[in-house]
């Protein structure tokens, strides 16, 4: 996809989102309620309408080739960039997905191990050292110091001895 | 002098052990964040804000302000050593800092940068101390119409001074404002904009979710993309004798440093102007008023001191509207403002009356942070240079983990963490298409305040929009806002005319 096409696609997507926001805002009152002032939907409705106008302007400027992006025929995301960014975003998404199942600590461990060893091509010693110490540090910071419980999923029982340590 | 007493109290608060510890820790992290290309003060503050739930609000803001401050010092390190600005605020420092380093004068450039930052910081804090209380007192008279007009003015400055695509800047601002309305309607309490009926949207979209998404995930994706090339670190010789020598050489920079401090401070006060343009303007001024303008860009030490004093002064300057009016002047101060709301403080003119120990503790801590930032900076230059060699493939995943845990902590909901990833990817794509993202973050912080003041004003006037023009102050704010709004359009038209004229200057 060229930058030119990407700008068009993004503008259309954002315009559609603006329309969705307007429709969603209109579920509340967007007019004047006597004695109460403007209804709850009025402010977001008119803001979203403004967004739609901005999209229309951008679309016009794209059509007439005024924005630098609309004249740019280079690839929007080149293969070299995609090779780094796609696995990065996917691995974060997998980490979040796994958090629901095996908990955040195990997910962080796996994510760091994957990223350091296979994306960064660092040695096993550094990869393992960092991926093991990060969840430990996170645990003591959030659960012991801040008393904020992070999700643990099916690994919860493993943490019982640690709970007795900090509580 | 009536200012002296609260100031001394503030400094006493700032040197309480916990606060002093926060200053030192914040400055060290700030130096690091500032020095790492791809990370700046706003990333550091946004990613680490959830960490501050551990300490009381005063210590928390002192910590975050120290990061902000340290980052302004740190930016110079990579500008000089790598030729890459560590943060956008240090772009101008590369112009002469890099040539100095190539000539083997990296130590002179680093010392000049540190001292200039110190002078810029000190002058601006003194100005801040003098200006803030009267401005806050004046702002106490503001009613909802003035508040709303002031926010319109703040958004208009983004359009006027942003310089990039006007339609995209406005879109970004409006989107931030809409995202702020998700959740329960602030007046009627009705659920509003609950996308896909997901229950996670009932607690709204926390500004941190957007800030961490954009400045944590999005920005790191951006840096991963551009940091594929290798960097070359300049060699630096460090010895006490050379340091002392470098200090003696600073006599020639007094004028550019002091001028840079004042320019930076006033640029910092303007919303949306801030440290980056401040440092560029200071550089330009130093060059045009120099007896030897040709030497700029070849390694003139004044080309380092002017932007470095200016960016520090600007960071303090941008705290002025944030603390006194509740209008942040930069994305970093917007995140700080959001933090204050989380800690249960109401930013704005009342802050000086209701939470004096908070405000003055912060001001006091800036004096202290300034001294520590310079000392730590000078003492640890070799350490920071070693850290610049840290591959981004180590730093990036650690930052992602910090984003995930930090994003989960405030509401303890995985829904928010998924949103962070979504905002991160969208923020990256939007940025690639020249949509400015800073106005969006500013807007989501100011959104609820703007909506409340608008609806209260309209309720008071029975729906008559003229209320904003009937009151002289709000009319004035709107007029300035309108002028800023029209300015880029007029400039564009003029530019076109000039291009059309046959005798162009090239």
From TrEMBL, chain B:
Keywords (A to Z) from UniProt: Membrane, Transmembrane, Transmembrane helix
PANTHER family to which the protein is assigned, alphabetical: BLR4373 PROTEIN (PTHR35342:SF1), TRICARBOXYLIC TRANSPORT PROTEIN (PTHR35342)
Protein name from the UniProt record: Tricarboxylate transporter
Lineage of the species this protein comes from: Bacteria, Pseudomonadati, Pseudomonadota, Alphaproteobacteria, Rhodospirillales
One Pfam family in the UniProt entry: TctA
Cross-referenced InterPro entries: DUF112_TM (IPR002823)
Positions of the DUF112 domain: 20-442
Entry's transmembrane regions: 6-33, 45-69, 75-97, 109-136, 148-167, 174-195, 201-224, 325-346, 358-385, 392-409, 415-430, 474-493
Species for this entry: Rhodovibrio salinarum
């Amino acid at each position: 996809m060229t930058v030119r096409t990407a700008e068009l696609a993004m503008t259309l997507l954002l315009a559609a989102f603006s329309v969705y926001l307007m429709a969603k805002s209109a579920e509340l009152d967007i007019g004047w309620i006597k004695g109460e002032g403007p209804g709850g939907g009025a402010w977001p409705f008119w803001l979203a309408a403004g967004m739609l106008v901005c999209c229309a302007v951008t679309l016009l400027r794209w059509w007439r080739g005024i924005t630098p992006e609309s004249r740019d025929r280079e690839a929007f995301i080149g293969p070299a960039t995609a090779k780094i960014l796609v696995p990065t975003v996917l691995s974060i998404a997998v980490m979040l997905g796994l958090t629901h199942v095996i908990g955040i600590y195990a997910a962080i461990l796996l994510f760091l191990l994957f990223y350091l060893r296979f994306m960064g091509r660092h040695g096993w010693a550094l990869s393992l050292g960092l991926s093991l110490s990060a969840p430990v540090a996170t645990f003591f910071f959030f659960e012991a110091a801040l008393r904020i419980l992070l999700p643990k999923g099916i690994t919860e029982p493993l943490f019982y001895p640690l709970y007795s340590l900090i509580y | 002098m009536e200012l002296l007493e609260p100031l001394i109290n503030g400094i006493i608060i700032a040197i309480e052990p916990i606060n002093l510890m926060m200053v030192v820790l914040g400055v060290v992290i700030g130096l690091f964040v500032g020095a790492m290309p791809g990370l700046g003060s706003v990333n550091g503050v946004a990613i680490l804000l959830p960490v501050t739930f551990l300490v009381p609000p005063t210590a928390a803001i002192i910590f975050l302000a120290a990061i902000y401050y340290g980052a302004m010092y740190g930016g110079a390190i990579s500008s000089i050593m790598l030729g890459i600005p560590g943060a956008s605020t240090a772009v101008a420092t590369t112009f002469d800092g890099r040539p100095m380093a190539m000539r083997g004068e990296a130590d002179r450039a680093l010392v000049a940068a540190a001292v200039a930052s110190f002078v810029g910081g000190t002058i601006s804090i003194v100005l801040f101390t003098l200006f803030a209380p009267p401005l806050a007192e004046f702002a106490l008279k503001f009613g909802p119409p003035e508040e709303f007009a002031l926010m319109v003015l703040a958004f208009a400055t983004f359009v006027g001074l942003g310089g990039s695509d006007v339609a995209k800047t406005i879109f970004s601002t409006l989107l931030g404002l809409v995202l702020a309305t998700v959740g329960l309607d602030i007046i009627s309490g009705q659920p509003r904009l609950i996308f896909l009926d997901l229950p996670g949207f009932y607690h709204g979209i926390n500004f941190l979710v957007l800030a961490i998404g954009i400045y944590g995930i999005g920005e790191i994706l951006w840096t991963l993309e551009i940091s594929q090339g290798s960097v070359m670190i300049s060699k630096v010789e460090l010895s006490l004798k050379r340091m002392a020598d470098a200090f003696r050489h600073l006599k020639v920079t007094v004028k550019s440093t002091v001028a840079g401090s004042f320019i930076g401070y006033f640029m910092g006060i303007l919303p949306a102007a801030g440290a980056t343009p401040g440092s560029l303007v200071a550089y330009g001024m130093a060059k045009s008023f120099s007896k030897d303008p040709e030497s700029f860009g070849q390694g003139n030490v004044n080309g380092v001191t002017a932007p470095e004093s200016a960016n520090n002064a600007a960071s303090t300057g941008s705290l002025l509207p944030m603390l006194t009016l509740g209008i942040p002047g930069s994305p970093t101060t917007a995140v700080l403002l959001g933090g204050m709301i989380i800690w249960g403080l109401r930013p704005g003119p009342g802050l000086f009356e209701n939470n004096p120990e908070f405000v003055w503790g912060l001001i006091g801590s800036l004096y202290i942070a300034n001294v520590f930032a310079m000392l730590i900076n000078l003492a640890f230059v070799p350490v920071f240079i070693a850290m610049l060699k840290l591959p981004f493939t180590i730093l990036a995943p650690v930052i992602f983990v910090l984003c995930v845990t930090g994003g989960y902590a405030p509401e303890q909901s995985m829904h928010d963490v998924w949103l962070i990833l979504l905002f991160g990817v969208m923020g990256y794509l939007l940025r690639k298409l020249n949509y400015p993202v800073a106005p969006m973050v500013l807007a989501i912080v100011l959104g609820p305040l703007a909506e409340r003041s608008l609806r209260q004003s309209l309720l008071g006037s029975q729906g008559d929009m003229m209320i904003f023009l009937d009151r002289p102050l709000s009319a004035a704010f709107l007029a300035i806002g309108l002028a800023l709004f029209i300015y880029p359009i007029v400039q564009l038209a003029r530019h076109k005319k000039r291009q059309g004229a046959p005798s162009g200057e090239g």
